[in-house]
Amino acid sequence: MRQAKLTKPERAIEHALLRGEYADVSKSEFEAIAHAIARRRKDAVISIRLNSQDLDQIKRKAKRLGVGYQTLISEVLHRVAA
Question: Helix, strand, coil proportions of the chain in percent (round to 5)?
Answer without folding.
Answer: 60, 0, 40
